[in-house]
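Methods, example record. To illustrate the input and output format used throughout this study, we show the complete record for histidine kinase. The sequence lines were provided to the predictor; the line carrying structure tokens was produced by it.
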Amino acid sequence: MWLVVIFVMVAEVLIFGPSVARYRADYLEARLERSQIASLALLASDGSIAGELAAELLDNAGVFNVVLRRDEVRELVLASPLPGPVDASYDLRDANLLGLTRDALQEMARSEPRIIRIIGNPVQRGGLLIEITLDTAQLQRELWEYSARILALSLAISVFTALLLYLSVRIFVVAPMSRVIRSMSDYAEAPQDATRIITPQSNIAELRQAEDALQKLQNDLTGLLRQKERLAQLGGSVARISHDLRNMLTTASMLADRIEMSEDPSVKRAAPKLVGSLSRAINLCESTLAFGKAEEPPPRLERLRLAPLVEDVIESEKLATDTTATITFVTDVSPTLHLRADSEQLFRVLGNLVRNARQALEATRKPGVIELTATETVDEGQSGVAIRIGDSGPGLPPKARDHLFEAFQGGVRKGGVGLGLAIAAELVRGHGGRLELVRSDGDGTEFRIWLPENT
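The corresponding predicted structure is encoded as:
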């Protein structure tokens, strides 16, 4: 409200000068008109008006003397004694707004009245020129009174305008904003309660956009909180299951060690694979027991050869392949290719990707190919190892591609929960690398893992 009052008063200051200039000009023109009438009355009497009557005419006109020039040679003078010398003369015939404004403000600034001469044009073609002499005391007084009226009117207008603006802002801006703030406070008390999510109602475009954005934010946050709660519950369940499963797998590992001592050639070939699988399962259970942190443990980096690890992954998937499916596994990994990585975590990453490819091909019930290659490369100026896993399957559906690496979002296989790729991406990030989808179309799907050399 105070800002509106100030702005209106500033606007009034800008028009104050022209206003008082116009008022002064009207005042002087009125004196010229009265003086012309008095002069014409004297002219009509052919000079027979007595001195007292002439003085009364001058007094009514508010001037000391009048000079009315009706032609080039004849002048009519109506005069009375001047109380002092003439201080200044003003010609209204060619006055401009700037000059009138300057003269009016100077007149108001003077502390004492003075005698001035005013020159103007007679009205109704009553002559060639009219000149009067008057005292400025009444003019100064009326100018100040007029200024006081302008000030009072400006204050009244500014206060009324400010009140209207204040009420408008309260109704159209503050009230909707207060509703938004109340909704935010109410939602903050129970963000998992969907009934507390704001419903956009404002008719103002900017506020409606803010309400829409807030509604989307609250919906997303409520969904994330619910997912977090489910993950916490799942984590507790998995931790309890992993504890018991670890004990059972430990027993199975001991039995596998005894089987490894068998003299049967086929058992001897399968026993190391069984022991390795059981060891990895035990390590996975132990890692899962740390699920309360909602993150994977940091990788234990060691320099290793990639080829044997890839062979283990392929062998495990071959054993798990449906006997009715015709799937060809192709690998191209140099036996001398080394990298620094956590062997268990990298096995899980490659196992997830190859298993997804195998399951996708099995679902088509058609022959297919899974390729796994690795090369040394430079990515964004940093050397490292690029591992590519591709298949000739049907490709990923659009919904899966949109949320591919998000937990519980990117599941493709019926019955899957969408955790495999999310876990794989997290494990690769832990190595300082990247897991990305290179392509996925009717010709198949290809993923790329890049791991830096200096990890």
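Annotations derived from this record:
The chain is about 55% helix and 20% strand.
The first helix runs from residue 2 to 44.
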